Fold these 3 entries.
Entry 1:
Amino acid sequence: MACSSCSTGKDGQPKGCKNNGTCGTDGCNKLTVFDWLSNMSLPGGVEPFNYVEVRFKNGRKHFYKNTENLSLSIGDVVATEANPGHDVGMVSLTGELVRVQMKKKKENPDSDEILKIYRKASQKDIDVWQEARSREEKIKQRSRQIAIRLNLSMKISDVEFQGDASKATFYYTADDRVDFRQLIKEFAREFNTRIEMRQIGLRQEAARLGGIGSCGRELCCSTWLTDFRSVSTSAARYQQLSLNPQKLAGQCGKLKCCLNYELDTYLEALKSFPKTDVKLKTKKGVAVCQKIDIFKGLLWYAYEGEWMTWHKLSPEQANKIVAINKKGDVVGSLEEYELEIQLEEDDKKGFKDAVGEDSLTRFDKPKNQRKRKNKKRKKRKGNPSKSKNA
């Protein structure tokens, strides 16, 4: 989702900041990477890493080998090897960080599958590339009409032309296997180019299209998130979130990826809590866990038959009662342990928060009283006889 000021023009150069093909603030490109080693020089005798990372439409990135030892910098438009022909993209990363990224994504630099960079893109390459990009939206609409006419249960979400306009890749989502042999024939006849169909998941579709999440920010998958981990409803249960599909589902219709961000912290905190399905046995009766508060470190129990009366315990006290029950003994009642917690809380309240205890309208009250006093004085001055009689 590039901004209007930094989007590229027909010549491949940005309209706004003119920072050689990329955003000057490095904030409006999908899956952008900040090169924090760009100002550092290599030690003596160390050759620069001759691989670069090239970004294509909607954050698609690949690694290429710089066999010609071209002087490349971030934002340069380059022509890369493709099958068939060549593709056109922008350099998104150079130098030693490319080595780190390849190691992270388990890419072998010595592999024969890594393609090479032909040259820096000429003006003719950029013109052909921009002309092909301008056709993508119309072709996407037309391809959807053809798919509907053929009664295919699939959704064409995006179309991407190769840089030399010799091939068009159609990205689609489908629940089941789709027989699109007839579809490819009609596409080739309609658009007069090579056709490639590529199925993607719902998360990948949301990443390509982009959007704004319920948090008010751009989607994580379209800005920085590269690996999609499975998200289960247990992540919401551990964090005590309401199992509301409308709130837990993201733009893709699946569970939000951010449910996994704080899950490890919650699991670590829950290790000190007893299991909620364990009942506490007392002489007064059997107590069942009703609620837990991970942040405050508290549990609430209620006796069977007295569900409206809750007793607050700490994890340490609950674990102590569980340990006693495992030995075959029972405690007197929960009130004994609840009283200890109450005394500890009273001791902690030795200080007072002056800001929190003050009223928000504390500045308004004196003003109202002064106005009332001034009005009474004016009335007395206007009617001196009434004031004397009074």
Entry 2:
Amino acid sequence: MEEKIGEVFKYFKEPKVAAIKIKKGSLEVGDTVRFKGENTDFEQGVKSMEIDGESVEIAESGDDVGIKVKERVRPNDEVIKV
């Protein structure tokens, strides 16, 4: 079941990192997420995450987390756990 867990608030071109606000539930390394927006729609696995430069295994509701992405994402793109 797909569940929207947050949205992108910033994209860093180098090194292709999406900054995500987790708004509901949690996100763990190993999860698969889908990025969906007006010009965005792809899925990928979460290989690693960082909060304030520190590597983490899990991000909870309210956290701002950075993950490497394989394609460009845009602010307000939805982050959906699949």
Entry 3:
Amino acid sequence: MLAVDALTGEEYLELKSKSKTEDVSEYFASLVSDCVQEGYNKLSIILDNNSTHKMKMQLQLQTHLSNLNIQDKIIV
């Protein structure tokens, strides 16, 4: 997986094909936190239909966002 800024083309992260759900969801939570701190009011994350992007990912991401106290900033 490769995370890229759509405006600048800057690469933020590239995960190995065997990355665990916890690793990916923790990264997304960190990305959301950074965007909130930067003052962004919208962030679109597009995922393919990989099985790690299903319920386990959503639940894990919600947990990370709650721990960062920014769960109200994103719709999962």
